[in-house]
Amino acid sequence: MVTYIIRRLLQGVAVLICVSFICFVMFRYSGDPMGALAGVYATAKDREQIRIAYGLDKPFYIQYVHFVARATRGDFGNSYVTRVPVLGLIVERIPASVELAVISAIIALSLGTGLGVLVSLKPRLAINRLIMAGSLAGISIPTFLMGILLVMFFAVYLGILPPFGRGETVKIGFWRTGLLTWSGISSLILPVVTLTVYQLAVLLRLTRAGMLEVLKEEYIKTAWSKGLSPRRVIFKHALKNVLIPVVTISGLMLGEILAFAVVTETIFQWPGMGNLLLKSIYESDQPVIVTYIILVSIIILSINILIDILYCFLNPRIRYG
Question: With CB atoms 3.0 to 4.6 Å apart as the test, which of 135, 167, 194, 226 could cross-link to 201 if both were Cys?
């Protein structure tokens, strides 16, 4: 296991180098950042001085080497727009995105798995067919439309939930949370529901399909014939063998929500990383975009390694050499 983890970490480093190089090339040649750095009324002399100050006058490969050298020390440079360190700008947005993503993932995983098991046991029941129809609607409705409908119904018509913002937050150390105030919790409900609906529907259908297949296996029939309790047969013998693909998809969804909940964060003006990414793209703030992509790559790689480790606990037969 230790050898496998070390090998995966080395692979992750190689992936990060490739990602950083591709991003660096892509954004260095996508346009001149002088518009954001110097402003509209800067003279040619001002532009040249700024180009020298930021090292943009040097060859591309030297710029990349300097970027990597600084990045290994945690220095990703300053934002072209706000002139503040990029890493700090992104890190202060992480608590909002993490709370939104983790709560959505927990709700989707628990409800999706539970409903998937329930529906698979008696698929012909009317209520179970209704649940499956609802899951199909959850997959089909686009995220942006779901968010707009929720805002229109609960915020505009009923007026019981805030339409945007994070509400009142409390700072605990370096972490700023909205889970300790009613304003923060109420502001979290609509974006969480928006993100959860699609994830829940996917996990429900995945769990149901896996359970329907596993329940037909011979070892499940043997377990029933031995007189084992329904709970033991369903949760220990059947569900445990279905969880590997469910956990895999859940991990990928968590990484996706953390990294690319741009639409939801924009609709609800949620002060998370996705909202920052969208603003940075509009403003051509290249250091923020490159740093964001690198940090997101680290997060997704870490989640994938944790999922691989979790496989060993779900199925003891899995061994990594």
Answer: 135
Domain count of the chain?
A: 2
pTM over 0.85: no
C-alpha span between 122 and 119 (Å, rounded): 6
Q: Are residues 118 and 233 in the same domain?
A: yes
DSSP secondary structure, 77-125, as one string:
-B-TTT-SBHHHHHHTTHHHHHHHHHHHHHHHHHHHHHHHHHHHHSTTS
Whether residue 231 sits in one domain with residue 293: no
Task: Pick the range with the lowest mean pLDDT from 168-182, 186-200, 236-250.
Answer: 236-250
Q: Does residue 89 belong to any structural domain of this protein?
A: no
Q: Which tops the pLDDT comparison, 228 or 191?
A: 191
CB 113 within 8 A of CB 207: yes
